[in-house]
Amino acid sequence: MEVVLSFEEAVKDYGSKKIGPISFSVKQGEVVGLLGPNGSGKSTSIRLALGLSRTSSGTVRTMGLNPIRDHVRALANVGYSPELPNLQTFMSPNELLELVGRELGLGSGALREQIPAVLGSVGLSDYGDQKIGKLSKGMVQRLSVAQAMLGTPSLLILDEPMIGIDPAGALHFRSLFREFARNRGTIVMSSHIMSEVESLCDSLAVIHSGRLIFRGGIEEFISSSLDTRLVVVEALNPSDDLIAEILRLPGVSAVNRTSVGFTVQVVKGRDVRSEVSKAVVVSGASLLSIGYSRSELDEAYLASIRRSGA
Description:
- This protein is an alpha/beta fold.
- The protein has two domains: 220 residues, P-loop containing nucleotide triphosphate hydrolases (Rossmann fold, 3-Layer(aba) Sandwich); 82 residues, Alpha-Beta Plaits (2-Layer Sandwich), CATH 3.30.70.
- The chain is 36% helix and 29% strand.
- The strands form three sheets. The chain has a six-stranded mixed β-sheet, sandwiched between helices.
- The longest helix has 16 residues.
């Protein structure tokens, strides 16, 4: 698969602070979550990829090109939505998107087709002629994503796209981003909302104190970061004998009842979901659901940051 974004020993030295060296790549069709605490180097990495900042050493390639020396060609197929966008308040969404579209080289016909489409995709169809200054923070965020989607981008770089977004907006974005990825689009998304990262991304790049501390799949990150994992079982009428049997399974360190069933704490490297499922069914209890805890990515992220010296 084609590499669309790469960092090779990239360093940005601010004098009082240094980011890097950072090395990782993103391939076409990937949806990558860019994680890290505030000040870790996420925004610097994005600025380097967009040619908004120059490396002190090392190289960055966007679409195979140097985003500083070959800025226009490197970013011709890149859409960018910044954190806390500062859009022209005196314009309407339609006017802003027409301006952006003209800069992208879109003709009148393409603009007439694309502007209503991107506004609809982010839930702003009814606000095209309203002044941006009168839109809510969440609506401005939606508009920022809409302008990033204008044209035919094959790479989206999104810096905290879910900030200020209500549940309906988040639903719009999830659907939009998934459709984009299904069509072989690539997304690099910086976010502190782990549930959104887990829902949308297939891999992670985790940066801490200017260093890349992990690059790989979400499941690999969770497994490598946590010493134990928590299996959540939703079941009707689990008996004491069932709880005792599961507690005897190799690798199980604790079983605790909950209001909807029980949880199973398991040591790293063991997957007991199949054995637990079988035990529940054989016992006569009704198994409603089983899976790893939804908070595991949060826990793995905090554990990896602690290990890195936070």
